[in-house]
Design brief:
This protein is mainly alpha-helical and 215 residues long. It has eight helices and three strands, in the order H-H-H-E-H-H-H-H-H-E-E.
């Protein structure tokens, strides 16, 4: 929701106060938004965690073959996923950073252009939810390929569009696909490399990170 709400707000702040003061204001808002909610999470009871892990490890998708982080780094699957993700997000964030300015070059007002990013954010939410469900049905790999092809193709189309409605259409498709990529990549990593306590026990500094290979 941050992209939906803060895109027009940021545009207004920059127009009225300049980018430097706007960064300062947004920094204060971000600090409060990050720090305040972080005071409320609690650790799950150990019995609940143990029960959840037993349920996960008993599913037919898991394998007894255990990988340390060092072993996983020797697999080409991990490096290919990271390479794909790096190249993908280099392009996506280039568009996100320049979309408003590009629209202004097409004689579209800054206020209207800022709403394009709001559309990207809103459709990104839809893409995360929809592609997660779709990938359960047609598979992670096919879903990821579909999203990558669509987002790449529509980025080529961006070089030709000029009208407001075509920018809105681009923003909707672009946001949906990039949101879908976020979800499907996370699910793909979980499908290929099973993390015990997926986010909590991943220690990059040593061999305490456990990865399970899913066939």
């Amino acid at each position: 929701m941050g992209t939906v709400i803060l895109s027009p707000v940021s545009s207004y702040l920059i127009a009225t106060h300049g980018w430097s003061i706007s960064y300062f204001i947004l920094g204060i808002v971000a600090g409060i938004a990050f720090i305040a909610p972080a005071q409320f999470p609690r650790r799950e009871p150990q019995k609940a965690v143990a029960g959840a892990l037993r349920t996960i490890s008993s599913t037919p998708q898991t394998s007894p073959d255990e990988f340390t982080l060092k072993q996983a780094l020797r697999t080409r699957h991990l490096w290919l996923i990271y390479l794909m993700y790096f190249l993908c997000w280099t392009c996506i964030f280039a568009v996100m950073g320049h979309l408003v300015r590009h629209a202004e070059d097409m004689n579209i007002s800054r206020t209207v252009a800022a709403t394009f990013l709001s559309v990207v954010g809103a459709s990104g939410i839809a893409g995360r939810i929809a592609m997660g469900s779709i990938s359960d049905r047609i598979g992670r790999k096919i879903s990821l390929i579909i999203c990558l092809i669509l987002v790449g193709g529509i980025m080529f189309w961006l070089t030709t569009i000029e009208s407001v409605w075509t920018f809105y259409f681009f923003s909707a498709i672009f946001g949906f696909c990039y949101g879908g990529i976020v979800t499907v990549v996370a699910a793909t990593v979980g499908r290929l490399f099973w993390f015990t306590a997926y986010g909590g026990n991943l220690w990059l500094g040593g061999n305490t990170c456990r990865l399970w290979w899913c066939r």
